[in-house]
Write a structure and sequence with these properties.
With 343 residues, the chain is α/β, with parallel strands linked by helices. Helix content is 29%, strand content 20%. It is globular and about 50 Å long.
């Protein structure tokens, strides 16, 4: 299997909350790949129909008008506790490094009126990952004219920070087999369908400035690692999902053998080939619609998230392990080109 969750440092987070420096040089990410200005909004959504309650964190990236964006600040990449978590994981315990990171999305800027009816894409993160480590891809898609919904999946997300300051973690399990991942995929599908249903309720618009109705009768699904498998499972379970992308994730559950009739794109790291991943070979053969299997040279599994770029900018001397790979900036461009061409 391709995904293995990271170790995390939750006890250290509590110790380090007061360690950030008073002044920080802000790091602006690479230019967006599309021409549109973008906004972002985040909120907590509670699914009480499932016990224990699923407390979901959701972020939505969307096109916004340049004339109004100037009145709204750029959003930070992370909340204060996620800053500390990211410092522990990526920045080699250089506390305060992650707090320098900003998006190119304007926090709570109103959606551009002429882009209310653009395609909506649901983006599921990798197993053990938070949605916040996929903001780069989501921003680039939004700048190319899409509305992108990202979410955290409780229980299998390493660190979730909620608006009231509480956080949720998970217990890493190194003994999980292929069958153990199927319930995680099922819960993820349920999470996303719940978010989709909530967005369908016009009286509770989640995007600032939204006057009309989102186009939710035909939507797209994509994800990295287990999120890519989730995208395929969504398409098998709900006909509203008409196209999907799996970025470098092994396949689990019924969709592996049943396949799909909708268009589906597989994006892989340089070493991920169907000859070495039986689940991909089985799934690819079961796809009856348009399909492609594309590998990106000089990449590894985690490079489909933001972590490659974060490693490039947060580690003072870079990461020697990345010297033989693409830069994070280059990976953003390649990833965006394939996703925009497909969707």
């Amino acid at each position: 299997m391709l995904f293995k969750p990271r170790s995390h440092y939750v006890p250290i987070i509590l110790l380090a909350l007061a360690c950030a420096p008073l002044t920080l040089a802000i790091v602006i990410p690479p230019s967006l790949t599309g021409p549109l200005s973008i906004g972002v909004t985040s909120y907590e959504l509670n699914n009480t129909s499932i016990q224990p309650t699923r407390d979901l964190m959701v972020s939505i990236f969307y096109p916004a008008s340049p004339s109004t964006c100037k009145y709204y600040p750029l959003s930070p990449d992370f909340g204060p506790e996620t800053d500390i978590y990211t410092d522990n994981w990526i920045a080699n315990f250089t506390f305060g490094s992650s707090a320098k990171m900003e998006m190119l999305a304007h926090a709570s800027a109103p959606i551009s009126p002429e882009h209310e009816d653009v395609p909506v894409l649901f983006f599921s993160p990798g197993y053990g990952n938070s949605r916040v480590y996929y903001s780069g891809a989501a921003q680039n898609l939004a700048s190319n004219g899409y509305i992108v919904v990202t979410m955290d999946h409780p229980v299998d997300s390493d660190f979730i920070e909620y608006p009231d300051g509480r956080n949720a973690t998970y217990a890493e399990n190194d003994t999980m087999t292929s069958t153990h991942f199927i319930p995680f995929v099922d819960r993820r599908v349920s999470d996303i369908l719940f978010i989709l249903s909530d967005l369908s309720i016009k009286k509770t618009p989640r995007i600032p400035g939204l006057k009309g109705k989102l186009q939710l009768e035909k939507v797209g699904a994509l994800g990295h690692s287990l999120g890519g498998c989730t995208a395929a499972a969504l398409m098998l379970n709900d006909s509203r999902f008409i196209a999907g992308v799996n970025m470098d994730g092994s396949m689990f559950g019924p969709v592996t053998t049943e396949g799909l009739s909708q268009p589906f794109l597989l994006l892989a790291n340089a070493g991920h080939v169907r000859e070495y991943d039986a689940s991909w070979a089985t799934f690819y053969d079961a796809l009856s619609g348009w399909k492609r299997d594309i590998r990106v040279n000089e990449t590894q599994h985690h490079h489909y998230s933001d972590t490659l770029y974060l490693e490039n900018v947060l580690r003072p001397d870079g990461d020697p392990a990345n010297r033989d790979f693409l830069s994070g900036k280059r990976m953003y461009v390649i990833q965006s080109a394939y996703l925009v061409a497909f969707f």
